[in-house]
Design goal:
Blueprint: E1 2-7, H1 20-25, H2 32-41, E2 47-56, E3 59-69, H3 73-76, H4 80-89, E4 93-97, E5 111-112, H5 118-132, E6 136-141, E7 152-163, H6 170-176, H7 179-189, E8 192-198, H8 203-219, H9 227-238, E9 245-252, E10 255-265, E11 268-276, H10 286-300, E12 305-310, H11 314-319, E13 322-331, H12 335-345, H13 353-356
Parallel strand pairs: 4-6, 11-12
Antiparallel strand pairs: 1-2, 2-3, 3-4, 3-5, 6-13, 7-12, 7-13, 8-9, 9-10, 10-11
């Protein structure tokens, strides 16, 4: 019999080794745990990271990271009025971003002790959220729909990856994206450079991370339900020494333009957080060049894929070579509430044409 505990206490160093076999199965490694730990240490009012532990006969057999959000009106509505009404209601939503690992600082598949029982444990975790939560939202692959019987299902943006396993050098990637050579030249000719910074950023760059984050959030088609926590965690990780974490920093004549943080875990390079100064009239294709630099890094370091999270813009859609369809799976412990939320959410930004256009 499985039992569950939902708490604000992150996994201990005694608990994480239980999932070593599962990490190895996915070609990840233990470098993800310090990243998640920073995410928990960065908690802000109204947004709380939680661990859903699963036990069997007193033995830890599973763990999933979810976020309890009560301040998410802006992620649903453009208008400040409707957004404030949602926030004033303080209706808690439990969000599990279940695809990939560490994307946006919290994505995780749900770690299990026995990889052969992953689907069983994941389904049980989802069922517990349904029973426990007034509202829970699981962001997962379409192919995993059987894990969520009775959920309201809404399509959303696909998962974006670059498979580098068949590339011997970055020239193979550039051969697939010939327009990038021109953009590389434009960026370089305007004084643009990229540097790879290991482990942490210096204080001045962390200040610029905050500035770029705010500029990006103001213009992005997606505003995360846990946006404040995301920023807090990005600032904390950027100023903390973390092994196997790298920052791809773009500069224009020495001035900070933007960056992408990523963790090299196992055979993968997984994006953590990133932002560019979108208040500028142009960055001379710095964002396009970022993909080239990350592909070059991955190939040079023998990594077989780069995880970029969800497709949020046309540049990312064109830059990647693999996408996987995903959906939102909505639950409530009250059937009438689930019906109401399903109808409401289909009229929000989450189901807007500007987001769903990337699904096709």
């Amino acid at each position: 019999m499985l039992t569950f505990e939902l708490s604000e206490r992150f996994l201990t160093t005694q608990e994480t080794p239980a999932f070593d076999e599962y990490l190895a199965r996915h070609e990840w490694d233990s470098s993800i745990w310090p990243v998640f730990r920073c995410f928990f240490e960065a908690a802000v009012p109204g947004t709380t990271p939680l661990v859903l532990r699963t036990w069997e006969d007193g033995t830890l057999c599973g763990a999933a990271i979810v976020v309890r959000c009560t301040h998410y009106g802006r992620s649903l509505f453009h208008g400040s009025g409707p957004a404030r009404l949602v926030d004033a209601a303080r209706m808690p939503n439990y969000l599990w971003i279940k695809f990939g690992c560490c994307m946006d600082m919290m994505s995780n598949p749900g770690f299990v002790r026995d990889p052969a029982r992953a689907e069983e444990v994941h389904a049980a975790m989802a069922k517990h959220l349904k029973r426990y939560c007034f509202s829970s939202l699981i962001y997962d692959y379409d192919d995993c729909a059987s894990l969520y019987p009775g959920a309201a299902v809404m399509p959303t943006m696909p998962h974006a990856l670059i498979d580098t396993s068949g590339m011997s050098s970055v020239q193979d990637y550039l051969a697939q994206h010939k327009n990038l050579r021109r953009k590389l030249n434009i960026f370089r000719n305007h004084g643009g450079t990229f540097e790879v910074v290991a482990n942490r950023l210096d204080e001045a760059d962390v200040v610029d991370v905050r500035r770029c984050f705010l500029a990006t959030a103001a213009q992005s088609i997606v505003y995360l339900p846990y946006q404040d926590l995301y920023l807090s965690a990005a600032l904390l990780t950027s100023s903390t020494h973390l092994d196997n974490v790298y920052y791809f920093v773009a500069r224009l004549n020495g001035e900070f333009l933007g960056y992408q943080a990523a963790v090299a875990t196992g055979s993968h390079l997984n994006a953590l957080h990133g932002a560019f100064d979108r208040e500028r009239a142009t960055t001379h294709h710095a964002y396009d060049v970022l993909f080239v630099r990350m592909v070059d890094f991955a190939i040079t370091h023998g990594l077989t894929s780069i995880d970029f999270g969800a497709v949020l813009n046309i540049t990312k859609q064109r830059a990647v070579n693999r996408t996987i369809p995903m959906s939102y799976f909505l639950y409530s412990k009250y059937g009438i509430v689930q019906w109401f939320l399903d109808g409401m959410l289909r009229r929000t930004k989450m189901q807007s044409e500007e987001q769903l256009k990337f699904r096709s």
